[in-house]
Structure prediction request, 398 residues.
Amino acid sequence: MSPAVLNTLEDFYSLLSTSLKNQSVVKLLLSKYRGEDKSLNRISIRPITLQNEAVLSFVFEHQTNHITKNYDYLSALDEIKTLIGDTFKSAYLTLLDREVQIEFSKKGKLQISLHKAKQSQVAPANHNREKNRFVDIQRPFLTALKVTDKQQKLIPAMSNKWKQINKFIEVFNQALEVSPHDKKTPLNVVDFGSGKGYLTFAIHDYLRHTINNDAQVTGVELRQGLADLCNETAATLDHQGLEFVCGDVKTHAPKQTDVMIALHACDIATDYAIHYGIRAGASIIMCSPCCHKQIRPQMQSPELFQPMLQYGVHLGQQAEMVTDSLRALLLEANGYSTKVFEFISLEHTNKNKMILAVKKSKVNAQEQAKVLTQIANIKAYYNIQDHCLESLLNESAL
Ligand SMILES: C[S@@+](CC[C@H](N)C(=O)[O-])C[C@H]1O[C@@H](n2cnc3c(N)ncnc32)[C@H](O)[C@@H]1O
Prediction:
């Protein structure tokens, strides 16, 4: 049983150790730093699960950036013992039901106080459920992007974005499992139309922090202001190998790319992004198309469909289905195994379709020829003269 009174640091370490074992630690904050590193403010320590292993995640909060280090429980306890009292004069341990404060006076006198938790903390069941998400809610990038607040609690207005980030990483992780790429070789990732960078930061953090892949991640964004903002945010975090450039997917110079992402890139920007991914030989192509304007005016549907297509909304849905089916089939014809499925809806759009393509290790020429015939037949049926992705592929094959 844990003690009702704590007199010494040893009592405190014993309480910490027991609480880690029974999963009742919420966080430990070390502050009042008096060490040599003038940029270090405090260390925030939390239990997390990394690849099914329970670890303590230390976030070293410097003035301009955050550095994360993870330790197994035993090493973490050793590390904490070297920090409290020596360089950190204050520590605050939050347990599910209690809080412990440690203070060293200027003269080095130790004071330990123990009291009931001020607010009800996350119950163990929720705590575990949160840990089972693909993204750890306590990651600093989520606070920097204002998905979570300074206490690393989800900002209610961002709950859809939080779900989307998790689903995106879950889908990516499954694609990586089946892709020909091994998890250790550093990946080159490009995210076209990166916007405010939520997914770009998330994939970078997942690769670098969760699966220890020294990935290089580039967000390409048409608007200079957004690229600058994301670079400024990246500079405040421990996010090596992450950069945002102002550029247009239509003209972005090709470079080695293993993963191509384009979520909600407008209209034919999606075709340019897929074309880039295919040319670069990317192992994984993930896109979520947005607005389907190119095909719609070209399409001529059979007389039989007219009663259905008199309702304008159906014209749009038909154009969307045909455009994305042709994209998926063109990916198949170019050596990818492709899925089209519902992803997750967003606060600002109901577009939630994802085209996910993973490069096959072997291609079957006969199957590819069959798919090319299917594409030609669909185009002929609807009298489609020009599908942007197909034209781009034909041009680059010349
Ligand atoms: C709807 S936002 C999506 C942002 C992000 N991908 C997401 O899903 O959260 C689309 C972004 O693509 C950018 N964009 C549009 N056309 C582009 C192009 N041709 N090249 C690069 N970025 C483009 C826009 O400026 C915008 O920031």
About this structure: Residues 144-397 form a domain with the Rossmann fold fold (CATH 3.40.50.150). The radius of gyration is 26 Å.
